[in-house]
Design brief:
It is built from no helices and 23 strands. With 219 residues, the protein is mostly beta strands. It is rod-shaped and about 125 Å long.
């Protein structure tokens, strides 16, 4: 009888927890390192192609011997130590309620992400418009520029902030009026006219009757 030689196959994974796994000839193990005692000869190795953990996504890249096959076949003739390489990614979500810019993608950790707003003012043709105010993260202003560049160093959610404005048109057949323009919703504006009394004819003057309460803007 010939004794079949047995070797150690040591597989190193990015993290030592149950979300990363490796299979050798259909036998599954988790943790790192995963150690298999195997007879000489051919064996089939397979690792998780994609893993989600702690807000990150890990994508299988390659083995440290240069192979990018998964699953892959090896010829075991001695003890073998392999490290599995993964690319860590984070999710960056960029939202806007108006305009056309929205992003929700996975990016490599450290990658630069740039997004821009195509237009800063959107008119609706009914005396209403939306005005871009800036980019916000967790309620704090990140930038008020049209374009935003951030680093995908963690899961991030960026929201484009907009304000609603309403158009006020003021007109009069007599005198000079002021107060026309665009105003933020739920703000106040004062409308004025000068003079408040004008001569209609030799015997008649016209006096302005006005309301002193400011006009309240809002829907």
């Amino acid at each position: 009888l010939v004794n079949q030689r047995v070797h150690n196959l040591i597989l190193n994974l990015p993290l030592s927890n149950s979300v990363f796994w490796v299979k050798v000839d259909g036998v599954n193990k988790t943790g790192s390192p995963a150690i298999f005692k195997l007879p000489e000869g051919k064996h089939i190795l397979q690792v998780a192609p994609q893993v989600h953990f702690d807000g990150l996504r890990y994508l299988f890249s390659q083995w440290d011997d240069g192979s990018s096959e998964n699953p892959r076949s090896i010829e075991l003739v001695d003890d073998l130590n392999l490290t599995v390489k993964y690319i860590p990614q984070v999710r960056v979500m960029i939202y806007t309620s108006y305009g056309t810019t929205s992003v929700s993608n996975w990016y490599e950790v450290g990658q630069s992400v740039t997004v821009s707003i195509p237009q800063t003012i959107i008119y609706y043709g009914n005396g209403t418009r939306r005005v871009f105010k800036g980019w916000y993260e967790n309620g704090s202003l990140v930038s008020n520029g049209l374009s935003l560049s951030i680093v995908a160093d963690r899961p991030r959610t960026i929201v484009a902030g907009w304000e609603t404005e309403y158009e006020v048109n003021v007109s009069s057949e007599r005198g000079v009026v002021n107060g026309s323009g665009w105003y933020k919703a739920d703000t106040s504006t004062t409308i004025t006219i000068s003079p408040t009394q004008v001569e209609k004819d030799f015997f008649t003057n016209l006096s302005l009757i006005h309301i002193s309460e400011p006009t309240r803007l809002g829907m």
